[in-house]
């Protein structure tokens, strides 16, 4: 999920929404839905993550800017879980 670099900094994998999935902001956080079948996922993210951070080509690091380490870890776990469930795809870092 994350690796520690030379001075203890953390590196986040880059994720993007799967082309067959959609996400929208709700009061509780984010609602993910899969167009391939009737699959919905409610993620209680509050204000930790915005849907535009998950669009292809988005700068995921902006999602973590100004966040505490605990919040960063929470976001990274959420993204990893969403990828495992097929809502997100891991993107190569260039």
Summarize the structure.
The protein has 94 residues and is α+β, with helices and mostly antiparallel strands.
What does this structure look like?
The structure is a single chain. With 94 residues, the protein is of the alpha+beta class. The chain has one domain (2-7, 17-91). Helix content is 21%, strand content 31%. It contains 2 helices and 7 strands. It has helices at residues 61-64, 69-84; strands at 2-4, 10-12, 14-17, 21-25, 30-34, 39-43, 88-91. The strands form 3 sheets. Strands 4-5-6 form a 3-stranded antiparallel beta sheet, with no helix packed on it. It has a two-stranded antiparallel sheet with strand order 1-2. Strands 3-7 form a two-stranded antiparallel ribbon. A hairpin with a 4-residue loop joins strand 5 and strand 6. It is globular. Residues 1-9 have low confidence and may be disordered.
Measured distance between first and last alpha carbons: 18 Å
Overall strand count: 7
Strand order of the largest sheet: 4-5-6
**Which geometry do the CA atoms define?**
globular
User: How much of the sequence is in beta strands?
Assistant: 25-35%
Q: Roughly what is the average pLDDT, rounded to an integer?
A: 82
Q: Structural class, from secondary structure content?
A: alpha+beta
Question: Helicity range of the residues?
Answer: 10-25%
Backbone CA Rg: 13 Å
Largest β sheet strand count, sense and barrel closure: 3 strands, antiparallel
Low-confidence stretches: 1-9
Our count of domains comes out at 1
Secondary-structure element pattern, one letter each: EEEEEEHHE
Tally of contiguous helical segments: 2
